[in-house]
Amino acid sequence: MTAAMGVVAAGSRQHRRRQIIGWALFALVVALIPFLIADTYSPTIFGNRYTVGLGNLSQAIGLMVAILGLNIATGYSGQLSLGHSFFVGSGAYLTAVLVNDFHWSYLATLGVVVPGLFLFGVLFGIPALRIQGLYLGLLTFAVAAVFPSIIRLDEVADRTGGSNGLLIDSDLEAPTWAPLEKVTEWLHAIPGVGSRVPEGLTDRQEEAVYKYFLLVMVALVCFWLVRNILAGRVGRALVAIRDNPLGAAANGVNLPAYKTLSFGISAAVGGVAGTMLAMHSGFVGPDEFGFSMAILLIVGLIVGGSGTLHGAVVGGLAIQFVPHWSSQTQTLPGTDVALEGPYGTAILGGLLIVIIFALPGGASHGFRKIKSRLMPVAPQPPRG
Amino acid sequence: MGSLASVLGVFDISLDKLSDGELWLAQFFRGLSDGATYASVALALVMIYKSTGFINFAQGSLALLGVYLVYVFSVEQGLPVAVAVVCAMVASAAVAMFIERVFIRPFPPDHVLPLVIVTLGLLLIIDSAVGIVWGFRTRSLPSMFPRGAPIEWGIAQLTWRTIGNLGTVVAVVALLYLLLSRTKVGLAFRAVSSNLESARLVGIRVGPTLGFGWALAAAIGTLGGALVVPDLLLEPSIMLRVLIFSLAAAALGGLDSMAGAVLGGLVVGLARNLLVTFLDLSELALATAVGVILVVLLVRPTGLFGSTRVERV
């Protein structure tokens, strides 16, 4: 098959230009989407009405960051962690309590959540050093199951709300300087595309759009930081530990230090994800962060592509939208089956197995393959 | 003495409770009964781990399916409970064999992580399938054993159920031992567990042998479920809790030791009941199980009776 575009050398000017165009397109899409779906986008397919709401998208962004964190411990350094929901839940509850009882702003809580969860992850990582492979998976799975019962403990229930969950009494109103209203008007005035954009934003829509941008910013910072950490010495050490622990140790990688570090970073990113989810929904409940979430995050990690950053994005979208759309399928074409409730989980389970069978590298591996066919890049030896 | 009392006070322990012999005995019996059920699901987990080297996270879900089949055979079809349990064991064994053939065997057996992930997928699928077919309404399941207690000391009762649960586990272990040590298929199973490649070279049909292991494990898991559910109510999430306690039991005993699984089950059952009663930790029943796993794994990373793997570089 001939390539749709010519081969370019990695690092050449054409390659740079292509990358810049790609990122610009990405930025444009990310910036425009909230306005396009501020009035929930709802296509009808085979008589079923599906919705793509801004709320779903914001939730998916939180889940992307959660998967990003899991990716560091499991995807990159190869330690099976089925308890990531514990870190996410801790971050969410920490934020909720700080906002409710101490009247902090959401973003300020990150100043406690990130170092706190990092420390917690390191503390968790130290016993994990002695426990390997499946035994670790088993222990983390049990830890995930315990989180809801810790939240329900009588001793902490007056702060955490116990079984009822906790409504966070702080709204995220768009600040007056944010020109969301103006941008909406401009976009609406564009012929053609403009018809999809509402004439003006209601207060609720404005809040949702503002929240979306806030979450996108936090997510971008997380992805950027993690990318930088993983692109350097730490990332190489973690991948070496995953691929061959003995070989890594023989080459001077300090296994215990890097393994605990990976748990620390993983937990800190997970905590940020928790803050984001709390920010998005303004509510935290104990059962949200039980082991069903832990398993869903693993599903997202594998479906998106373990050990890749793009994978976290695809995975977050998948575990948010697959169950959502499944529950909106009121009549499966050709039958009168409604795919409500547990069907969504079953479909995710099926997807997980199909991906492991057919595309072990996950969806991002598949995209990369297609991309390298359409826009091949010739690798260049490093200079010097 | 004063300091001891203050320490106990922190945990809300009353000395009355601690010196109450009947309460001890009552919780001891209850612990044995729970422990027996955890032991049987842990046995199922160990069967799979021994032969294939991975943990089947769908084991609890297979047991869940089995228990719902018991419900169908006994309550809906009106069979005697014991007969219903046997039918359900056979049916869930068939399902497990099918699952092993379709979802597990296509993967290379020496690559553990994808297989574990597949079992997580199976967990999601089976649990939600049970929810779809039978709904989320709670139901009560009759027990195989009569009500009442032949032996009583005050509030401490040795019920027929406790005796039955313990007896069943002892019988399962005995039968399993005979099956593995005295039959040809048992010999094949042990050969495959100890060295898959060599077993294949001497002409053992590895695939069907592993399928047999899956079937056996599912049948044992179903039996364990049928023991535990009558104490609780039947609903689709019930086996997840049991799975955690059984995982704790298996980890405690060592993932590749059957005797360890039984002992681990009993210890977890006892620890759960005694600690929860005397330390007043009713919300923390699961957490005590996790604490048990953590402590044991820290001291002995392969459990009490697990064999250490020696790796050749």
Please write out the topology.
The complex is a heterodimer of chains A (384) and B (313).
Chain A: E1 8-9, H1 13-36, E2 44-45, E3 48-49, H2 54-76, H3 84-102, H4 106-130, H5 133-151, H6 154-160, E4 166-167, H7 180-189, H8 203-231, H9 233-243, H10 245-250, H11 255-281, E5 283-284, H12 291-304, H13 309-328, H14 342-358, H15 363-374, E6 377-378
Parallel strand pairs in A: 1-6
Antiparallel strand pairs in A: 2-3, 4-5
Helix pairs in contact in A: 1-8, 2-8, 2-11, 2-12, 2-13, 3-4, 3-5, 3-11, 4-11, 8-11, 9-11, 12-13, 12-14, 13-14
Chain B: H1 2-10, H2 15-18, H3 21-52, H4 59-76, H5 81-104, H6 112-134, E1 151-153, E2 156-158, H7 160-182, H8 184-194, H9 196-201, H10 206-228, H11 238-253, H12 258-278, H13 285-299
Antiparallel strand pairs in B: 1-2
Which key features would you list for this structure?
heterodimer, A: mainly alpha, 68% helix, 3% strand, globular, B: 313 residues, ABC transporter involved in vitamin B12 uptake, BtuC, two-stranded antiparallel sheet, 13 helices, 2% strand
